[in-house]
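YM 10:42: Ribonuclease G family protein sequence, as discussed on the call
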Amino acid sequence: MIDIGRKKNAFLYLGDLFPRAATKEEVQQTHISVGQSVLVQAVKDEQSMKGAKVTANVSIAGRYAVLMPTVDYIGVSKKVRDEEERDRLRAVVASVKPEGMGMIVRTVAAGVSEAELTADLQYLLRTWESIQRRYKLAKKPKILYREADLLMRMIRDYFTDDVGAVIVDNKEAYERITGFFAGAEEAKRKVALYAGEEPLFDYYHIEDELHCLTARQISLPSGGSLIFDHTEALTVIDVNSGKYVGSSTLENTLFHVNKEAAAEIARQLRLRDIGGIVLVDFIDMNDSEKREEILRILQRETAADRARVHVFGMTALNLVEITRRKSRQGLYQAQYSPCNVCADTGTLASPESVYINIVRQLRHMTEVHHIKGDILISAHDDVLALFRDKKRKEGLERELARKLFFEKSGHANREVFSVFSHAE
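YM 10:58: structure's back
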């Protein structure tokens, strides 16, 4: 465990403490002691009860490249397919890269000038030098470098040649983005400052889309639906056929809905930024070829995901396991916090269960503690409705040998109640 200056200690795997190229002998000769200072980078956010995950293998992302100070390597994104361009990019990196460090050229660097790429690489090297200086001066755990905020990360990571336009409704944000594209006039021309009277999100119906992205259930074009349930360990997606009857046979109907679901699930994983383990419950199909086709659709549609996605086979129960790299909170976790009424269980005790619980407490109070006087019960209206039943009320009053009075509780949780003796 590593103290990084937060309430929760961070977790550092032993293998992440050493450079990727470290030999077995180098690892064995390294001695780590309590209180020793270590330079680490957070690679996974805090999750509920877990602290952040960190690594000593630092990587710093720029617009066109990623710097890896602990490994000697030059790489080019696999998505840059032209061999001449790959060779050109490697040559530019080789002319700048210090010995012992690594750099990976990103997809968006394809076609950029040598000057632009060199400027980005030099910026990354200056950033690393600044981090090292701060580390040497640090007397206690502290943040040495913070990655760009959400706005600039989005521009850095998602602004590619196929983006038609970036529309911004905030002048400061507009100036930051255009400043980021200084010297890249073609990219800068794609950035526009919105001047409409209607709010930007309303004009482009973004609010509706955001609601869909956090909704538990979303509809498919055929009439089927997907239901999302999140737990601490995994996300479960249930595929329902709904009322779709468009195909000639039941098997074809189920196959059609499952095909729609497979494509939409891949899309929702990206949009909702769902990470970790995902379990998909497809509608039952007996045809092995159709089951294989569903897997092919999932694999094809997740191939474009920036996060690493692995689709496992389909079980006999039509369950498919998917893993997607998880580095930060998904959209659902970022938008919602645990329910303070149901303690995040999603359920509450039924009125009947609470009624029985109160009756047990009444008997305990009268038979064990021998309280005196009549009794006031403060509870949720759904629970009081059961007490107000004439036969129940009269029966309890005879059993307890005292009068019962009722008061509606203002608490939203029906499990919460109070019992008072009028003699108190």
